[in-house]
Amino acid sequence: MNQIGSLGSIVFAVTPDTIRTFTEFTRTSASRWANHEVLGKKPVSQFIGPGLDTVSFTVHLDVRYGINPRKELDALVELERSGKAMPLIIGGKGIGVNKFKIISLEQPWTEIDNKGNLLKASAAITLEEYV
C-alpha cells in the first residue's frame, strides 16, 4: 500500500485494489490584528495573536477505482456531524500543531447509474484547526 496520508480514520492511499486520493490541497494561515481608532490620526494596529489555520482539499471517489462513493460520503458526513477533532497527516507528518475539525463538506455527485447507484463523486472538504 502506498499511503499518502490520513484524516482521522480516513486513509488516503493507492493500493492494488483501490485509489483514494485528493487534489487542490490548500493550507491557509492568518494573524489576528486589531485597529484602535485615534482621533485625528491613523488607527494604531495591535497584533492580537495567530489565527486558526484552515485546510481545504477535494477527495475523488470513483467506483472504477474500488471505492463505494456513497459509503465514503456517508462516512465523511458522519465525521462532520460528530464534531470530532482529528489529526491530519500528509506524507507521514502532521499538518500544524493541533488537530482539525470538518467545518464544510460539499458533495458533487457526478455520475449515477440507471438504478440510482452513485458511481462517481467528490467531496470538497474544509477543515479548521481545533485548539
The Rg value, from CA coordinates, equals 19 Å
Give the ordered list of helices and strands.
EEEEEEHEEEEE
Number of helices: 1
Strand content: over 45%
Describe the structure.
This protein is mainly β. It is built from 1 helix and 11 strands, in the order E-E-E-E-E-E-H-E-E-E-E-E. The strands form 2 sheets. Strands 1, 2, 3, 6, 7, 8, 9, 10 and 11 form a 9-stranded antiparallel beta sheet that branches. Strands 4-5 form a two-stranded antiparallel ribbon. A hairpin with a 4-residue loop joins strand 2 (10-14) and strand 3 (19-28). The longest helix has 14 residues, at 69-82. It is elongated. The relative contact order is 0.22.
Compact summary:
The chain is mainly beta. It contains one helix and eleven strands. This is Phage tail protein.
